[in-house]
């Protein structure tokens, strides 16, 4: 493995909606390059729209994928196998723009519901993940002269299409089309990589071991009773231009429930530990970071600290004084969040149960492998022999979604019942996700169609045509078959 050449896999996805547990990836586009950004391979995988997916009109009007394009795609199961192999090619560093905040979560659930290891591409065979968006935020804050930065209504923006336009990057397609966005990210990286020292330093933020070592080496200078804490800076595009994508934080410690999860308290908030309103601790908030994720931590050096807006600097000083005056409350706050467990969702749908049900066991992996290795015409036979309740349910859904046509669906089958629930507006028929959210159903699809229809005059001719097929598709999906 040491001799295996590492490569970048720049990728982007388009989806049927915004819910990673329930919505479907429709296109996966990638360009593989060497570390000099020389192209080695490129491909777009298009995936047929599943019968149990209600497409979000707003999502489709953004990415512009047509029904005809999708009909020529492969099944979700076939795509999942291909994408899993691509991301797990030894030495692959997979990256995109906001990929850790969006794309990678979709991939995780795609792999899970198709009985593939959701995390393998994060750590095995010399593979790991990166995200160009937080790196871009670092350059925006600390080396702004590297690019021309777009503004919207006088406010800075890190939107990829605007950066692409402002800097006249050359790409081959339309904005929000997957391959076009991949090309735009590579062009952006070509500019950033010119600052070799900064780029190389940023790569280290996504190496889990190096990220942990860097954070652990930050000096602890904030004393509360007998404990010492590190005051740091955290960079993320999610903090917004008003904060200069940068906030002051204190590292509180490690979660005692979840491995590799550190806890951080923002120091620029109005009420950091629930003092101002006498909040119950359950209503307070901490940032949860994992090594190598999209949250970048820096030491609070003077040259970094001065990049904070003055209001953030002042809030940090005031809040550290508050903590010193309310030390018992601060330590109680830490204890609560270090012991915090995410609420159990009793009616969670199997597609969304990745985090709640955890890793596949050795037996579950073995049974999944038997299902994968079986020829398509023998998968039903293997399915009947699966003993694990979780694998049996997920494998059954794979079979129904990918190997049965509509004529084969029995009216008393579990999948027929599943589709009827999708058409229902009753609360008890909703599919519940890991955040206690629900799967986008026919009722929501019709509601979103009406919202779009109210603004129909603002759509271009292609979007109006797309609105027509979306309306027909969702209305037909809402009607049970005779």
From TrEMBL:
Residues in ExoI SH3-like domain copies: 196-341
EC number of this enzyme: 3.1.11.1
GO biological process, one term: DNA replication proofreading
Keyword Lipid metabolism in record: no
GO terms of molecular function: DNA binding; metal ion binding; single-stranded DNA 3'-5' DNA exonuclease activity
Entry keyword set: Exonuclease, Hydrolase, Nuclease
Pfam family, one: RNase_T
GO cellular component, one term: cytosol
SMART domains: EXOIII (SM00479)
Entries under InterPro entries matching the protein: EXOI_SH3, Exonuc_1_C, Ribonucl_H, RNaseH-like_sf, RNaseH_sf
Root EC class: hydrolase
Domain spans labelled ExoI C-terminal: 346-478
Name this polypeptide is given: SbcB: exodeoxyribonclease I (Exonuclease I)
Species the sequence originates in: Desulfobacula toluolica (strain DSM 7467 / Tol2)
């Amino acid at each position: 493995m040491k001799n295996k050449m590492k490569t970048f896999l720049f990728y982007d996805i388009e989806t049927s909606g915004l819910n990673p547990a329930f919505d479907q990836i429709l296109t996966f586009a990638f360009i593989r390059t060497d570390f000099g950004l020389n192209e080695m391979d490129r491909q777009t995988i298009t995936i047929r729209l599943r019968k149990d997916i209600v497409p979000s009109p707003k999502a489709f009007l953004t990415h512009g994928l047509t029904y005809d394009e999708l009909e020529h795609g492969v099944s979700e199961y076939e795509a999942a196998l291909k994408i899993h192999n691509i991301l797990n090619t030894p030495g692959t560093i997979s990256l995109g723009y906001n990929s850790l905040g969006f794309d990678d979560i979709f991939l995780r659930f795609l792999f899970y519901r198709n009985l593939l290891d959701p995390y393998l591409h994060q750590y095995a065979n010399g593979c790991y993940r990166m995200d160009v968006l937080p790196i871009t935020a670092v350059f925006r804050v600390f080396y702004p002269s590297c690019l021309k930065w777009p503004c919207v209504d006088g406010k800075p923006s890190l939107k990829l299409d605007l950066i692409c336009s402002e800097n006249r990057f050359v790409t081959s397609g339309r904005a929000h089309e997957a391959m076009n966005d991949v090309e735009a990210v590579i062009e952006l990286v070509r500019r950033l990589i010119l600052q070799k020292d900064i780029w190389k330093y940023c790569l280290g933020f996504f190496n889990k071991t190096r990220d942990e070592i860097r954070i652990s080496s930050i000096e602890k200078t904030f004393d509360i009773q007998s404990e010492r804490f590190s005051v740091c800076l955290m960079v993320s595009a999610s903090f917004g231009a008003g904060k200069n994508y940068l906030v002051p934080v204190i590292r509180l410690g490690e979660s005692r429930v979840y491995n590799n999860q550190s806890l951080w308290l923002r120091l620029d908030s109005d009420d950091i530990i629930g003092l101002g309103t006498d909040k119950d601790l359950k209503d307070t908030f901490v940032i949860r970071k994992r090594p190598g994720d999209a949250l970048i931590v820096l030491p609070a050096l003077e040259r970094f600290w001065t990049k904070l807006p003055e209001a953030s600097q002042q809030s940090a000083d005031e809040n550290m004084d508050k903590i010193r005056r309310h030390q018992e409350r601060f330590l109680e706050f830490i204890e609560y969040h270090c012991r915090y467990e995410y609420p159990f969702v009793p009616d969670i749908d199997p597609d969304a149960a990745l985090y709640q049900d955890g890793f596949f066991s050795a037996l579950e992996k073995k049974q999944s492998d038997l299902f994968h290795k079986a020829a398509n015409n023998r998968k039903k036979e293997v399915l009947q022999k699966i003993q694990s309740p979780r694998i049996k349910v997920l494998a059954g859904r794979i079979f129904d979604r990918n190997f049965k046509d509509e004529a084969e669906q029995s009216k008393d089958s579990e999948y027929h019942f599943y589709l009827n629930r999708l058409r229902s507006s009753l609360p008890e028929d909703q599919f519940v996700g890991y955040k206690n959210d629900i799967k986008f159903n026919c009722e929501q699809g019709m509601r979103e169609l009406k919202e779009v229809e109210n603004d129909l005059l603002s759509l271009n001719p292609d979007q109006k045509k797309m609105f027509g097929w979306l309306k027909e598709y969702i209305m037909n999906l809402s009607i049970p078959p005779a």
